[in-house]
Amino acid sequence: MHALRTARLLLRAPHADLAEAVADFLRRNSEHFAPWDPPRPAGLHTAAHQRELLASQALAQANGSAYRWFLTRHDAPQVVIGSASLSNVARGPHQGASLGYALDAAHQGAGLMHEALQAVVGEAFGPLNLHRLQAAYRPENARSAAVLQRLGFRPLGLARDYLFIDGAWRDHLLTERTNPDFVRPPEWGP
Fold this sequence. Notes:
It comes from Inhella crocodyli. By secondary structure, this protein is of the alpha+beta class. It has one domain: Aminopeptidase (3-Layer(aba) Sandwich). The protein is built from five helices and eight strands. Strands 1-2-3-4-5-6-8-7 form an eight-stranded mixed β-sheet, sandwiched between helices. Helix 4 links the parallel strand 5 and strand 6.
């Protein structure tokens, strides 16, 4: 998978050379991400663990089951400041994926995640030709609510006890966006 470029960001596909930068990103933000993340394995914040994950993520991208990008600024390309992903990619009659994202605490409030996710949605609805994206966020996460609304995601409703986060089952608000320019795959026939 290729990198995506925006006015201020480079969204880099998984590669072993990102291991230390991704580990550093996770270490810097471990407290910031704690209220929003599921339990994480020991060693997650090490370059060795990240090398393994990056190899797995690159393989998932190669087979089309998931896509991940790591955000760097054009003026600091060696520092990872966020990530964006399309997971649970389903083809067949669904043609959809789940959108996920995380941004460094020090870079919030500058519109960077909106900028990055515009590129990811463009990739999903353009070259990947997905029909539907869904995203879930905790009701108290006002920043996620705002970025998804700005991107045109529509609310679907509340999913009770949706994910195990920060030591308990947490409710999440579900949202969706569909691709108005979806192209019917040739294998579906006329």
